[in-house]
Every structure is written in structure tokens, then in C-alpha cells.
Amino acid sequence: MADKTLFEKIRDREIPAEILHEDEWCLAFRDISPQAPVHVLVVPRKAIPRIGAATEEDVEILGRLMLAAGEVARRLGVAEDGFRLAINHGRNGGETVPHLHVHLLGGRALGWPPG
Ligand code: AMP
Prior knowledge:
By secondary structure, the chain is an alpha+beta fold. The protein has one domain: HIT-like (HIT family, subunit A), CATH 3.30.428.10. It contains three helices and five strands. It has helices at residues 6-11, 59-75, 90-93, and strands at 19-22, 26-30, 38-44, 83-86, 102-106. A five-stranded antiparallel β-sheet has the order 1-2-3-5-4, covered by helices on one side. A hairpin with a 3-residue loop joins strand 1 (19-22) and strand 2. The longest helix is centred in the middle third of the chain and has 17 residues, at 59-75. Adenosine monophosphate (AMP) binds next to loops.
């Protein structure tokens, strides 16, 4: 069996994280190196490597990630002022952990376009 990804180890409580949400499809926890006052990662339980590797089979998981991100944003109080969801794919996208994750960033005005 392939080695677990970092986020599978967080899912399995082998590495500590501040987990804010967990359900049948995904979990959400605070980013270890926050880039905004609220910076949460929403991660599928299944180790899909990156968004471009997702398939038709993953369609429910992808929808659930978005719904969970919105729910966490509301719960953390950033929905009214606004927030951003970002998914980094590959080298140019800035991906460093090969396990699909949605960044939820909020609590300050975010620049556009991103760097
Ligand atoms: P990306 O660069 O899009 O692949 O995002 C990976 C994110 O994972 C970065 O924002 C990291 O700060 C975050 N990260 C790395 N290790 C941990 C960890 N142990 N717990 C929480 N977040 C982490």
C-alpha cells in the first residue's frame, strides 16, 4: 500500500491538527501556516492527489467539499464580509501537498489577482 499522505495522517489522527469539521466525505482543519486571520483547509477523506486528477466518481466528494467550506466560513464568521476558496494544482499553481485540498481564506481583504 502506498504511503499515507500528510492529510491522511491528519485524518487518521497520526499528526495533530485543529479539526473544525468532519463528515463522511471530508474534514476541515486550520492551516499550520495561516496566510489570513482565517485559513482553513477542507480536505476529502479520499486521497485524490489534486483537482485535475478527480474523476466522475468523485463528483459527490467535490460538491461536499464546497458545501463544507461554506458551512465552516459561516461558522467562523467570515461569510458576511467575504472569503476566498482556492485550489492549487501542480507546480505553477503552488501545490505542495499532493492530496486535494480547498483553502478557505478570510478575515481580511484579499488581493486580486493572486501573486
Ligand atoms: P498547497 O501549497 O496548496 O499544497 O497547500 C498546502 C498547505 O498545507 C499549506 O498552506 C501548508 O501551510 C499546509 N500544511 C502543511 N502541513 C500542514 C499541517 N501539518 N497541518 C496543517 N496544514 C499544513
